[in-house]
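Appendix B, Record 12. Input sequence as logged:
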Amino acid sequence: MSKLTKNQKLALDKIEAGKAYSLKEASTLVKEITTTKFDASVDVDVRLGVDPRKANQMVRGVVSLPHGTGKQVRVLVLCTPDKEAEAVAAGAEFVGLDEYVAKIKSGWTDIDVIITMPSIMGKIGALGRVLGPRGLMPNPKSGTVTNEVGNAVKEVKQGKIDFKVDKTGIIHASVGKVSFTEEQICENAKEFISMINKLKPTAAKGTYVKSIYLSSTMSAGIKIDPKSVEEI
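Logged structural output:
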């Protein structure tokens, strides 16, 4: 077992064992316990009391973070020629169709989000084996299959993220960077958690939100009291 570094020991000393912090407290603490030399991501993990194997208990949604994610999102727009200028103007890094479909078939996935049009989905379906495992497959529910490609690109660039519960009942998402202020981290995390609460399936029984943890890249997790999110 590897030994803890001096910084790791100091960070762990700041977290009280067994304590559930308020979201505001955790947003401050996550900055204090992060010692990475790079601008680490701030992540939220929410464990839900649902059975993801059942369709009526699947939790999936989209949320626009007030302060964005802090990440540079590389967007590919697969569209018809008449929509290319709109996509480029909105800030998409890659725009086209057949040439990118061919590149993806060859294994290219150096992108974060793919936006396309309903009329193009016939060509995209064949890419499912490559895009599906990487979470890149466009989906109408996440707003990435639309004729309004320009608006879709702008929303993604401004901090729109999609999420879904995994097979273990956990939803994970990055809600900012350590360089964000405590208020920005708190507001982004609140927006994310609040959206999850709104999406509670009617079929879910018992405790819906079982636990919430806030952490940064390579930091320990900070347990959050779910009630503190509602109080903000």
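The chain is about 30% helix and 20% strand.
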